């Protein structure tokens, strides 16, 4: 029972796992929390299909010290898109974070593919983490019993999947952006995809509070950096596509894919050049087009920045062309992994 101000007069004590599971089931049934079709845990040593069992030890260093790294891959029509690029980045982040992997790269990849197959999910995404592992609540990771690997499948509806395959729902109208007042991460940490996303979460919350889709960080030298969960890109008045250099920000897999695909527009005479380079906020504000680029979008035009129109304030032709190229790459490109659903037990 609850007393005044919501305090519990008596806190229940559950002595058995079955009692806890019953309470968890009641909680699941009383909320609209999303169910996840599959999870992998190296602590358990296998793939978990029961949402109630999808847990991480509370003494895992990733939970109470933020000592973990993660990455993601899109799942589209039964294919994992850019799985290998994202997996390579996960291992690079883990190396920087002094986290060893409990498995080889090949085994990690096989686990992710098998987990996705066992989920029966064909559209959505998968997220995966490497952690220093469980063991104790101290600061040093020396007490961790072993590094841990976790992964989960996140399903999306067929409608959402179709929208993702054809571009973000706001692709045709664009979105607003602001310059974040939240201090950005030091380049060492910004270039590592760790689970410490407090600055990112605060930057996103700030944007939403101000009626914008997301924010953009500008570094202390006046250079454009990145968004809280995506890279940014610009098209200059002269027709140059510029993605801020990756020396101070996360090396975005989708941004790099844009840089690989965009030269086709140079060959077609639509763009003059394509490259990753430093760009000042002053120069960026004079650009004809601006866009967010990230795995979940994959590209979203920005038509207003800090209350001022970007270019003519309309979605530009370059953004639309790049979006179409990315979507075609997701549907039929070379960097896709077919999920063997028929082999899942």
TrEMBL record:
Superkingdom, taxonomy of origin: Eukaryota
Keyword field contains Secreted: no
SUPFAM superfamilies (alphabetical): D-aminoacid aminotransferase-like PLP-dependent enzymes
Keyword Electron transport attributed: no
Keywords of the record: Pyridoxal phosphate
GO MF annotation terms: catalytic activity
InterPro entries: Aminotrans_IV (IPR001544), Aminotransferase-like (IPR036038), BCAT-like_C (IPR043132), BCAT-like_N (IPR043131), Class-IV_PLP-Dep_Aminotrnsfr (IPR050571)
One of the GO biological process terms: amino acid biosynthetic process
Transmembrane intervals: none
Family: Belongs to the class-IV pyridoxal-phosphate-dependent aminotransferase family.
Name of the protein in its database record: Uncharacterized protein
Originating species: Oryza glaberrima
Gene: LOC127773180
